[in-house]
């Protein structure tokens, strides 16, 4: 069931992706435009569910592709497409899955942070945000506007800000109660009115594989 922005429109992501995630929002772009902006080729974009992407990320190169539950390994066309797009045979470093909601493109990464280094480019038509939490629980937010990177900060630790202070750039202040990334996701819910459906993000989204993710 979809949750309204005032209830749990984005903050559920921090729980659902509890071992690390990046959520990126790009105003005015389509999902394929977002993926191309972070280096994907249109011909290499394929639809994947979250579970399929996760299986591809975690597999060992030596595993037989018949171990992938979502794939009919005897479907040579499907295997060839995933191989040419970089999902097989070696596991990609990160997979970016993208969809759209209310005039925004969004992207989700499990563990990786490819999109976080492209926030300026992703803001060419307005605003772009990337909210990242790594496997150790450290979070970071990047914000761009009209093709320029405005600020990069760790919620609750203003001395680690690069660029304009978050309070000045966005009107965001984290008072230290609760996780910083959750606080910022709640802030985006209120400011943007965006609600992502858990069911939609679990289903097939346009996806691209990248062999070397940007460090997050």
Keyword list:
alpha+beta
Sheet having the most strands: 9 strands, antiparallel
**What are the secondary-structure elements, in order, as H or E?**
HHEHEHHEEHEEEEHHHE
Structural class of the secondary structure composition?
A: alpha+beta
Indicate the radius of gyration in whole angstroms. Answer: 17 Å
- Oligomerization status of the protein chains: single chain
Q: Care to describe what's here?
A:
It is a single chain. The chain has 216 residues and is α+β, with helices and mostly antiparallel strands. 28% of the residues lie in helices and 27% in strands. It has 9 helices and 9 strands. A 9-stranded antiparallel β-sheet has the order 2-9-3-4-1-5-6-7-8, with helices on both faces. A hairpin with a 5-residue loop joins β5 (127-133) and β6 (139-145). The protein starts with a helix and ends in a 6-residue tail after the last strand.
Question: What is the gist of this entry?
Answer:
This protein is α+β, with helices and mostly antiparallel strands and 216 residues long. Helix content is 28%, strand content 27%.
List the helices and strands and how they pair.
Layout (H helix, E strand, L loop, with lengths): L4 H4 L3 H5 L4 E7 L3 H7 L8 E3 L1 H9 L17 H9 L9 E8 L2 E7 L8 H4 L4 E7 L5 E7 L2 E7 L2 E7 L2 H5 L9 H13 L5 H5 L2 E6 L6
